Amino acid sequence: MKVKQVITIVLSAMLGIEVMAADSKPALVYSRPSAKWMGALPLGNGRLGAMVYGGTDVETIALNEVTMWSGQPDPEANNLCGPDRLREMREAFLSGDYKRGNDLGWQYLCGHGKSFGTNLPFGDLLIGTVGGDVSGYRRELALDEAVARVGFVCGGTRFSREYFASNPAQALVVRYTADKAHALSATVSMRMLRHSEVTARANQIDITGDARFDKNGEGGVRFRGIVRVMADGGSVRAVGDRLVVDRADAMTIIVDIRTDFQNLNYRSQCLNTVETAASRPYDELKREHVADFKAIFDRMDIDLGRPTTDANTTDEMFAEAHKGLSNPAFDALFFKYGRYMQISSSRENSPLPSNLQGIWNDNLACNMPWTCDYHLDINIQQNYWSANIANMAETNAPLFTYIGLLAKYGSVTARKMYGCGGWVAHTINNVWGDTAPGSACSWAMNVTAGAWMATHLWTHYEYTLDKDYLREVGYPLLKETAQFFVDYMVEDPKTGYLLSGPSISPENGFRGADGRGYSLSMMPTIDRAVIYDIYNACIQSAKILGIDDDFSRRLQRDIKKLPPLRLLDNGELAEWYLDVVRDDPSHRHASHLLALYPFGQISPFKTPGLAEGCRLFLENQTSHANWEDTEWTRGNNINFYARLLDGEKAYESLKGLYTGFMRENLMTVSPAGIAGAESDIFSFDATEAAVAGVCEMLLQSYDGMLNFLPALPKAWKNGSIKGVCARGGIEADFAWKNRKVVSATLRSRVDQTVSVRVNGKEKTVELKAGVPFTLL
């Protein structure tokens, strides 16, 4: 450590302020290779995904591409329901005949999804080298550079490897070096998981095929993959379907995969990408990649306190966290890892947003009944909760493109199924335009699923204040979302309230007055929360943009006719418009709490009774003997408890994510037994939900005020954060000691007056665009 850094740490200790050494680099570090996919190191450029095992004699790199989809468009998918049958169902529900309403719903609202498809893995790149006894092994993932490294000594030679997935170059790049001349010999081959033809010529492996599930399957994208190998000081030759490298000083491997999903020129594009990258020096490719990644990653930093254990490697830290031991240093590492994963899986030029597995497909989820697709009843929403608050707003771009795709296809579903304008998408969605419900009303008939995801369009504006985006992208999609519900909702003749339905509270049912269990009803609380948020977003957008006065007035009238949020006799927040409770109180979903988070329609300050109803529900759900604890429920609960100002419960949920659902590479899993899964399956959602939750524990901005340290746990009594974002186009840097903020700086995109709650006191401050404001 440098003398200057030692002096800095000593002075900081004398002043009582805890800091990290200036040369501290966030990295996952391991002392051995991984023997399995869930231990490998993830790389990604927003389109290509790779899992690096770090083997010494045989390296395995599992390859993915986000558009690698089976299935095809289904022209019959929307042949469901229709306005007349919808009217018949509603008459039954509004008259109180829930048996008839549900019977009709299950008859007319269940889809078939016969060619729905799934995202699929591509195959494994295998690099074989001469084996032998190994010493000094180190495997790491530098989070700030997005570069994986492997180093070891074998036979008296030190071998070093670097791996990265470059967004500027749109390719995976691998570099092998040795500290002795002519020490590198290797075989490079592909182990394919798809129907394909693999050929090797000169220094290149070419793979072509399609993404069918089996030889007789229909549909699926066609693809091309290329692996180019270049040797320094040695030779490369093709032997059968593999490449052989002899006595090289170093070698570089360039990989690209392309499909014909919305891309007719995929074959030539793949070749051009590889040739362009191969024509450039390795160091240049790496510098460009690192600069591109750091431009987003370095906007934030976080220090939650000094390490509380002596663990040095990530697998040691993970082992302790898995046992429930608290370590602020590990919490900060996981936060940085989450931001790393978001940037790696979703970029401005990504053709699709991250799916249930981000862009890293383990070949397990795609074989489950729920597949590796886009579930809109919690999972994809969680994937993007971190984007704005954790200063990565541009990673939203592919999500918004996908919402546009859903709006295009969902307008047909809205018209055919319901006789409505606008657009609608239900619980499960693919890339082929299948926005109709799935095969069972109990989980598929979430009529506000697409609208829930569309609320993110408004959240993005709240954080960025980008009027051009709002005018060109956000508001047009929000307006079409609202138009569906303007046409879809019906007035309850008994109360005058506007109701959606038939719909569900995912994925729950209730016991009717006749003692029977039902899933379908009118206006479950999730629908009320989503529709309110969409209408409010459109009203605010129209005012900001100075347009659509008539439409805005209609929404202002209708929003007042939505039923209020309310409590049941047992004190819990009501999950349905009816006075009923759920059939299974241990079920994992808590969709009616959307009004608490992310929407902020409920807050401890403005609606304390409703907030207490949320707390009571969570206590009853999570204390149940059969609670379905999952990775994404833990992500949910971090945010729920942060909004309830309960830092200890929020931290307990974060630690529960570690103990129950995290694996040694810090990926999280959906556990075996949930939704028919036969084994633990990697799921991406909880990672980003946790990042958002940590931000919410440290700074909240949803309630008309910047609230500093609203849910700080005892474990984080000293710390600092840089670059956390707040609504109103604000960034904040602040530090705290003994649970009190000791310094804070705000930066605003616009001139504005802001209310602030800090150290238990409220104040109003004037911010000037681009001028840092020292709050403390």
From TrEMBL:
Domain of life: Bacteria
GO terms under biological process: carbohydrate metabolic process
GO molecular function: alpha-L-fucosidase activity
Domain spans labelled Glycosyl hydrolase family 95 catalytic: 282-698
Residues forming coiled coils: none
Keywords for the protein's UniProt record, in alphabetical order: Hydrolase, Signal
Descriptive protein name: Glycoside hydrolase N-terminal domain-containing protein
Organism: Marseilla massiliensis
Lineage: Bacteria, Pseudomonadati, Bacteroidota, Bacteroidia, Bacteroidales
